[in-house]
Amino acid sequence: MANLPAELTGTWEIDPHHSTVGFAAKHAMVSTTRGHFTEFSGGATIDAEKHESSSAWVDIEAASLTTKSQQRDDHLRSGDFFNVEEHPTIQFRSTSAKVDGDNLILAGDLTIRGTSHPVEVEWEFGGVAKDPFGVTKAGFEGTTAVSRKDWGLNWNAALETGGFLIGDKVKLVLEIEANKVESVESGEEEQIEAVEAEETPAL
């Protein structure tokens, strides 16, 4: 994909009801523990012809994390890890964009616990569709891997068999469905008109 599809040009907002922001890390050196955040927002401005001008942002509520274990989730929210009371938001702000083969690479700053480091997120484009209300939707899957220690998430415990309880490398996976902003406004107008039509009695 030397160029992005022309229909991607425009402003997009993440649909949180059809998107997942997840993470995964090794546990006890033998398995992978996965989790995700339930509260987040974000968007992108895409220029299909001048893709280097494209940009994206994501804000994540750190306290919304879940790994299906209350004890573990509480520990992750504590000062040993995300310290959500003092640093409630995880942020990503892109600084540059480029196309590499079939994928879009966004470089940017990832901020966790008030500390920012550069990362590269590789995005795979999933396609464009229009829902029954006229809203244009696009699918993207973004992945990157980071060292949690770079952001001060250092807690660990030694294993009797050698090694440590929690792996340093964390994989971030963003499965995103985004709505094109101008089509959302048009779709809302269509829904309002449809409701008004149903409520208006026939003469």
User: Which residues form runs of ≥5 with pLDDT under 50?
Assistant: none
Q: Report strand %.
A: over 45%
Number of strands: 11
Label the structural class: mainly beta
Gyration radius, to the nearest Å? 20 Å
Number of H/I helices: 2
Architecture blueprint of SSEs:
Layout: E1 10-14, E2 20-27, E3 31-37, E4 40-46, E5 55-61, E6 65-66, H1 70-77, E7 89-100, E8 103-112, E9 115-130, E10 136-147, E11 166-180, H2 181-199
Antiparallel strand pairs: 1-4, 1-11, 2-3, 2-11, 3-6, 4-5, 5-7, 7-8, 8-9, 9-10, 10-11
Structure write-up:
The chain has helices spanning 70-77, 181-199, and strands spanning 10-14, 20-27, 31-37, 40-46, 55-61, 65-66, 89-100, 103-112, 115-130, 136-147, 166-180. It has 203 residues and is mainly beta. An eight-stranded antiparallel barrel has the order 1-4-5-7-8-9-10-11. The protein starts with 9 loop residues before the first strand and ends with a helix. The model has no long low-confidence stretch (mean pLDDT 88).
Brief summary of the model shown:
With 203 residues, this protein is mainly beta. It has helices spanning 70-77, 181-199, and strands at residues 10-14, 20-27, 31-37, 40-46, 55-61, 65-66, 89-100, 103-112, 115-130, 136-147, 166-180. The relative contact order is 0.19.
